[in-house]
Amino acid sequence: xxIDSPYCxxxxxxIAACDSxxxxxxxxxxxxxxxxxxxxCAQAESAxxxxxxxxxxxxxxxxxxxxxxxxxxxxxxxxPEDKGARD
Amino acid sequence: MEKPWEIDLSxxxxxxxxxxGLRRRDRMACTCLLKFYAPRLLRLAGQLMGDPDEAEDVLxxxxxxxxxxxxxxxxxxxxxxxxxxxVINTALMRLRARRAVVTDDxxxxxxxxxxxxxxxxxxxxVEPSRELLDAELLDAMNGAVSHLPESLRTAFVxxxxxxxxxxxxxxxxxxxxxxxxxxxxxxRLELRQKLAPYLQESTRSASxxxxxDA
Lengths: 87, 214
Fold this sequence. Notes:
The complex is a heterodimer.
Chain A: H1 9-16, H2 25-37, H3 39-56, H4 65-77
Chain B: H1 15-23, H2 27-49, H3 52-68, H4 79-98, H5 104-122, H6 130-147, H7 150-161, H8 166-173, H9 177-194, H10 196-213
Helix pairs in contact in B: 1-2, 2-3, 2-4, 3-4, 6-10, 7-8, 7-9, 8-9
């Protein structure tokens, strides 16, 4: 398996045709369809997925004891405020 | 003084107990909150901001905001989900404040500049070894993600890295599921373009490995 370029012009065109805020679901479905059928995309997506998996499993960065202690002090000494935030 | 690392974290295993402790401003509850959520949220902040120092600022601000508003947290979502949303909102607010004007055009210009510097960087890479490639690839991935436009980076981080469902990620960002999908496709296509030398090498190595095994 080898790919000349992981970039696919057809995919780029399909994506470019989609509106960012309110895309046509049919166009979005065509992108999914293309990704399933295009060999270049299949190879590139597979390689990218492996990379994303490695990136995802990179260890969490520990917070320093000093940072933690300082923040705990701020959190437990701060008077509660009602700013109306809702979950 | 009580050392945070000597605290029995199981005391606040139950989320309702933890919330109750946080509402009392109990030191142990605040420490448990950080122990439970800070490492993951710090990584999230770093991925969203693309800068480790700013990530700590975001984390600090987010936890302070969360504790300020803990009395109004009604538990309709999980505490972790709520904190996620606060971290994301805090990060997005900072990203917006960083720029005088936010438009797609400006994002594109910034992005294109990043692309150019990326291309000159990647063109120096010549047939790296597998190990070097893996390390380089992760570095490259970090760089590529941090250079994505904000709207694409947030979609990618929430959906592909954090593993939220399309519906959850769309909900957090306040956009439709279709819009989320388009942003994700754009992000992934840009990453494919930026990581091209590494992805090509990766598929080539896999292919050689398969041939060697046969």
